[in-house]
Design goal:
This protein is of the alpha/beta class. It has 16 helices and 13 strands. The strands form three sheets. Strands 1-2-3-4-5-6-7-8 form an eight-stranded parallel β-barrel, surrounded by seven helices. Strands 12-11-13 form a three-stranded antiparallel beta sheet. A two-stranded antiparallel sheet has the order 9-10. It is globular.
């Protein structure tokens, strides 16, 4: 079966995938119908179980997109079960340097490239309706393997990893990468320096391609940036729950506006709540909090984009929760931790997100 992502990478194009998130295989079909090339099925940060994932893989096949499954770790037995279900892509997080990448190849590829176990009656082998030789050949040619270089050892050995036969993508996880190199946020120059260093190493080898998410809060790159870096595959945010919530809110606001009724959402956004932070009490509505944030952005106050995970959406910008709380209270960003800032915003009823 054709692997849409691998085909696009082979033609030098940028393949697009997006997050499944919902525990419903129908979202995979919707992702395909929307025009994406892949459905990103994450086992590392979700509670998805194997029967559900198998249904998602089937749904991906129905709409002709690649099922990209991120496993929790480099577990050959779990990888085998996913491949036998028909998964077309395996993403392995926190690969343990070049040795870990070699282990991944061994798990994903049949001999002579690897040591994947064989069973002729699996779904991947079309329940025995294709010859074993054809199944082995097609699997080794079409299955896509992505290894995530997020830790110091893998970063040091990225060139050797990119040179391995059987590795298709060298992936960067921006949040984990920033932690590994001690970067303080997306504006820290060390972040892009390291990304360019990795990109140059991978391009210099000339075999594998890069995998970097688009528009990530810790690494806000656009499509042109990714193409220049040599990226072959990207996860596209926001995830479906955010898309659905934001569109529902927009539609409700449009209808309320047509009939001149503010509605529940508007009433809540205008309601003031009180909270105390480091001895400073603030009584603000969420509308007023956003207004303060906009004003601070216009004044160029502080570094709103210096954050690794937690942010508030202000119009088309993501700003750090610590920065926003500092603008509200006047307490310097360095004098408190993110947990305190989140608790303060919770009390005020201000919505924030994680990247």
């Amino acid at each position: 079966m054709e692997n849409r992502v691998k085909d696009k990478i082979g033609r030098g194009e940028l393949a697009l995938g997006t997050y499944v998130s919902f525990t419903d295989p129908q979202i995979v079909e919707i992702i395909g119908l929307a025009g994406f090339d892949a459905a990103f099925i994450d086992m590392e940060h979700t509670g998805f179980d194997l029967p559900l994932i198998q249904q998602m893989i089937v749904a991906a096949d129905l709409v002709g997109i690649t099922s990209m499954v991120r496993v929790p770790d480099n577990d050959a037995k779990l990888i085998l079960r996913l491949l036998d279900m028909g998964a077309q892509g395996i993403i392995i997080p926190h690969v343990d340097g070049v040795e870990g990448a070699k282990e991944a190849v061994v798990a994903v590829r049949y001999p002579p490239l690897g040591e994947r176990g064989g069973a002729g009656g699996t779904r991947a082998a079309r329940f025995g309706t294709v010859s074993w030789d054809d199944h082995v050949r097609e699997s080794n040619e079409n299955i896509l393997l992505s290894v995530m270089t997020e830790d110091e050892k893998a970063l040091d050995e990225v060139e050797e990893i990119a040179a391995l036969d059987g590795v298709d993508l060298v992936a960067i996880g921006p949040t984990d990468l920033s932690q590994a190199i001690g970067a303080t946020g997306p504006s820290d120059p060390r972040m892009m320096e390291k990304v360019r260093e990795i990109a140059d190493a991978v391009k210099g080898v000339g075999k594998a391609k890069l995998q970097i998410p688009i528009g990530h809060a810790a690494l806000p790159l656009n499509a042109r940036d990714l193409v220049e870096l040599g990226v072959g595959y990207t996860h596209v945010a926001p995830a479906p729950p955010s898309v659905l919530l934001n569109d529902m809110r927009r539609r409700v606001a449009e209808i309320r506006g047509e009939i001149g009724s503010p509605g529940r959402e508007a009433s809540l956004s205008q309601a003031r709540r009180s909270a105390t932070f480091r001895g400073i009490t603030a009584s603000l509505s969420t509308d007023e909090i956003l207004a303060k944030g906009r004003d601070a952005l216009e004044r160029g106050s502080g570094d709103p984009y210096n954050f690794q995970k937690w942010y508030v959406q202000i119009d088309d910008k993501r700003v750090g929760v610590k920065w926003l709380v500092s603008q509200i209270t006047g307490v310097p960003v360095g004098d408190f931790i993110t947990t305190e800032a989140r608790r303060f915003l919770d009390t005020l009823g201000m919505e924030y997100h994680s990247s």
